[in-house]
Structure formats: C-alpha cells, structure tokens
Write a structure and sequence with these properties.
2 domains; alpha+beta; about 15% strand; Cas12f1-like_TNB; 5-stranded mixed beta sheet
C-alpha cells in the first residue's frame, strides 16, 4: 500500500535560495527537453492531404525517447557546470516528467484519453522537484537528509506509521513556504473487513444546499469557504490591478492572493477529511452517486460545484475506506432525485422544489429521499456480492414499501 504524508519545511535563508535556484535550473531543462520533443514532432509529421505531388522530404530525426534524452545529462553537466550541484536522480526525474506529459499528448492515458498540447513552464509555475529514491534512516527526528542538498528542518506534526518505508521525497514551493511530501510504502495490503454490521450501510446524496444527506436523515451543512472569502479576495485583487506590472508591490499583492486561495483550499480539504472520518467511523459501507463532476462544473452552478469540491471528497472517501478495509460503492445517478424511495414511481420536481411528496403517501425532504434511493440501488451490487453482504431495500422512516407488508431491514452474512 502506498500513502503520502506532507510536512512543512523550515529551510535556512541560504537553503531557501538554493531551492529556488534548483527550481529555476530544472525549469529551464524541462523546457529544453520539451522543445526537443516538439522539434521531432514537427519534423516527422506530414498530413497526407497537405503534401504536394512534388516535395522535398526533410531528413527525419530519431525519436527523442526517455533513454536518449537521459543520455544527454552527462553532457549537460560538462557544457553547463552549474547543473553538477543538482542530484543526478532529480535531473533524471525531469526526463521522466517530459516523457509522461508528451505520451499523454500523443497516445493518451491508460483509458485512451489524450491531454492537450504540453505547455512550456515559467519559473513561477515550476514548483516541485523529486527524489525518486531515498535511503533508509533519511528522516531522523525533525531533520531530513536530502542528497547533495543537505539537512533540512521538518515540522513533523505526525509520526510515520510503523512498518512504512520512505520511497520518494518531493520538495514543493507554495505560497506560504516550502513543503516536503514523503511517499510511504507498506508491503501489507489492508483486507476488507470479514463481517459487516447490518446497520452500518448508508447512502449519501451530495448537494449544494446541504453538503450531504445520509439515508438515515443526517445532514452535513455546506461550509462555502470560497464564497465567504470572496470579499477579501476582491479587495486584494483590486490592489493587483492598480499596481504597475513588474513592480515589487505588485508581486507582494499577487503573493497575498495566492496565500488567500491556499487558505481556502486548506479549509476545504480539512472539512473533507473530517467529514470522511465521521462517515467511516459510523458506517462500514458507503454508497454514493457516480457523478460526472467535470460536466457539472461547466454548468450554471460551476462556482458552487467547485466550492463544494465533490470530486476531491469522493477521492478521499475511496482512499480512506480502502485503507481502513471498508467499502465505497458508486451507483448510477440517473433519476435519484425523481424516483420515490417508497414505491419507485418517478415524481417530477423542479430544482427549487425541495420536498418530495408521492401519491403512495411518502413525504420527506428531497435530499433524504434521494439518499434512500441511492442506498436501495446497492441491492445486488457485484461488490457486495463478492463480499457476501446482502442488502434489502430500505424504506423511508415510518413507511411501508408495497409488496413487503412491513418495513424491510438490512442484513448481512459473514464472509469466510
């Protein structure tokens, strides 16, 4: 199992200057290697419908792949001796970054989805360098030894779990200082809990009026961190527009905006982790909608969707549940707000209508009804079958479902 812990660094003034210089040199090398790839791409591509009958075919270049670009690094240190102060594996990681970026542009990722044309990075946008390998015992107390850089102080706010080994280390420059990200590996794989409590399965409905509503009727309010900080952001952004481009006062104002945005992001992330922690303490299985968050973020509700951070929340929920040996299941989101949780009939509702009322007598909050429908859709799910967890359809509070006679219950069978 792999996990990542992030700590804040406390470098000396000289070390902070060295980090900035390393980032500047690595940025220049990244842009050079990317330009070399683009040069090969432009020379070797020739659309058939654009080629004249008589044409001169230029001499084709060999593809600058990962290994050929890696072989240029010793020569780089001869022609540019100042690159010799950077650890060799950090330079090799730049070649890997360029390879991954360009391959996604040409071939796509594992799902075949291609990204846009890679962009050259300015010094302000290149903020991280990585050590692909770290020695055992590199972190002693609140000090970490970075090869060819030195010993740097770390604010170790939480200990590394027993049995985990440090595999990689990344140094990142952010608006409020420098951070160290350690990638940790544990050879043991968490197993799914062999027994599930029948009362610890819930469905959650994510929303913009309330952040989420569970099938038991519990509600988590939405904090709206970005909207609450808009007044402060507006004031700082006005300072930027009024100051001369390139001046030190403008740079200070830009840094203030960056710090404010980071503060909002940190608050949102902290809220997500605490919400996930509360859910997984109470339930063994969490069922949610398989939302197209990217599509929703392009709608008229884009600002509210981004402020809620659904995608980040669901990612954290899945990761934390897997580490704890619990289950998170995504179901089809189609019609969850319209279907009646009691009889299954579609009850058309506009977005502003927040109460669900059906002819069968089911009357409850719209989000609560949707959460129950989401939970009911987990019935017979392949993941639950694989772990021998059986779920019967849950009815709304105080209601009976047609065909059952009385309020059904949930049950589970212990897996062997």
């Amino acid at each position: 199992m792999r996990t990542a812990y992030q700590y804040k660094l406390r470098p000396t003034t000289k070390q902070a200057i060295d980090i900035d210089r390393w980032l500047s040199m690595l940025c220049a090398q990244y842009n050079y290697l990317l330009a070399d790839r683009f040069d090969w791409y432009e020379r070797n591509r020739s659309p058939i419908n654009a080629c004249p009958l008589v044409c001169h075919i230029p001499e084709l270049r060999d593809n600058p792949d990962y290994y050929s670009q890696k072989k240029t690094l010793p020569q780089l240190k001869k022609t540019h001796p100042w690159y010799g102060e950077i650890y060799s594996q950090v330079l090799q990681d730049i070649v890997k970054r360029v390879k991954v970026t360009f391959d996604r542009f040409l071939k796509g990722d594992s799902n075949g989805k291609r990204s846009g044309r890679p962009r050259f990075k300015s010094r302000d946008r290149y903020r991280t360098f990585t050590y692909p390998q770290m020695k055992d015992g590199c972190l002693q107390g609140n000090l970490i030894t970075l090869p060819m850089f030195g010993i740097v102080k770390v604010l170790k706010h939480r200990p590394i779990p027993d049995g985990f080994k440090i595999k990689t280390a990344s140094v990142t420059k952010k608006a409020d200082g420098y951070y160290l990200t350690l990638s940790l590996e544990d050879t043991t794989v968490p197993n799914i809990k062999p027994d599930f409590n029948a009362d610890s399965i819930t469905g959650i409905d994510l929303g913009l009026k309330e952040f989420l509503t569970t099938s038991e009727g519990d509600v988590v309010s939405i904090p709206q961190h970005y909207r609450k900080s808009q007044k402060r952001l507006r004031a700082i952004q006005k300072r930027i527009s009024r100051r001369k481009k390139g001046s030190n006062r403008r740079k200070k104002a830009i840094k203030q905006v960056a710090k404010q945005h980071k503060k909002v992001a940190d608050k949102r992330k902290d809220f997500h982790f605490k919400t996930v922690n509360n859910l997984l303490k109470k339930y063994d299985v969490v069922v949610h909608e398989d939302l197209n968050v990217k599509g929703l973020s392009r709608s008229m509700l884009a600002k509210s969707v981004h402020d809620a951070g659904w995608s980040s929340f669901l990612s954290i929920l899945s990761t934390k549940a897997e580490n704890a040996g619990l289950l998170v299941i995504a179901v089809n989101p189609s019609g969850t707000s319209l279907d009646c949780s009691s009889c299954g009939v579609k009850v058309p509702k506009k977005l502003h209508e927040r109460w669900h009322s059906c002819l069968c007598g089911c009357s409850l909050d719209r989000d609560h009804n949707a959460a129950i429908v989401i939970k009911n859709r987990a019935v017979g799910h392949p993941v639950l079958k694989a772990h021998r967890v059986s779920v019967r359809v849950a009815s709304p509070p105080g209601e009976a479902i047609a065909g059952f006679g009385e309020k059904p219950t949930l049950y589970c069978t212990q897996s062997v």
